[in-house]
Amino acid sequence: MPEDETTATSGIVHENAQPLVAANDSHSDYEDDASVASSTQSLTDSIRDHIYENGRRYHRKSEHYLMPSDETEQDRLDMAHHLQLLILGGALHMAPVPPNPPNVLDVGTGTGIWALDFGELHQGSAVIGVDQMPIQTTWTWPNVKFEVDDIEKEWTWKKNKFDFIHMRHLATSIRNWPYLFQQMYDHAAPGAWVEISEHTLDELYCDDGSVPEDSIFRRYMRTLGLSVTKAGAHGYLHGRDYKRMLLEAGFVDVTIYTFKVPCGGWPKSRRFKDIGRWCAEALKTGLEAYGLALMTRYGLTEMDARELVNGSMEAMRLGKEHGYYIQYQVVGRKPRADEVAV
Ligand SMILES: C[S@@+](CC[C@H](N)C(=O)[O-])C[C@H]1O[C@@H](n2cnc3c(N)ncnc32)[C@H](O)[C@@H]1O
To answer: Which of 12, 230, 310, 324 could cross-link to 298 by cystine, CB 3.0-4.6 Å?
Structure first.
């Protein structure tokens, strides 16, 4: 566990880290709110183009996103959603959102499972799930819709529109976090909540010395963090970094909730054993999904990358190494109009 972060399920962290990235000069494929339908059409069939690499299917248009988009990955995303529900004790979020926030945005919605669950529970909310890949279900609730766009480009929704913005597990892809958080701030309504749900990518943590320094699982995690960074994203971000960037964007009341996620069913407590088993199940395809393209593009041969993946799976199966990663829910609020100094 990194120094200064609590080991329990909730802790606030303060740290001054260095800025991560420079200004962004990108722009959206879309011009304005009203143009979304036609712009989506203008994306043509290229948004469905794929490439195959190391036996997995990847989305061709996702230049910066090096995780697969195939059925196996979609199943994993739905499994990871269940794991996330277990971690949060059944909740979809930690932010204290009101019963039916009118406009909700799920950034990088994936299969759309979070957006659908939220829409089902909050039928008075209009929920948009946005993703660069059209992998969402074609069936949806009347109050949930999906859009295809690159969220690192300029957002074309109205400013001050969303009453809750949720974003989960995009860390391997995002190049310019400050720009993204600035867009979240600009498009959040005064008083709205945002929640960033990310986990560590750089280390296999352990509290009882059972993970040796040369553990293959630990080597997998460290190689992953390095590969993400080499790819131009940020493999070493922790809760405190997201918090700092949210504060810099202008959010207030920023709180970090920290959760240990055991990789395997080794914990004694029933709750953590359950979480660990689901985690191990999701990692059966997750280790490959996270690691293969990233590691092979940034230094490793396919054989070496697969050795790390398979060795880590074996370590999880044996259960002697009590490793975990850290899940963060970082929650913030855009100040209300009466809180903003004039
Ligand atoms: C690991 S998945 C998580 C999906 C979903 N948030 C969940 O938790 O189930 C990451 C998703 O972010 C999307 N994504 C990554 N970079 C993106 C970008 N620049 N614009 C839009 N979507 C992006 C990917 O296409 C993928 O569906």
So the answer is: 230
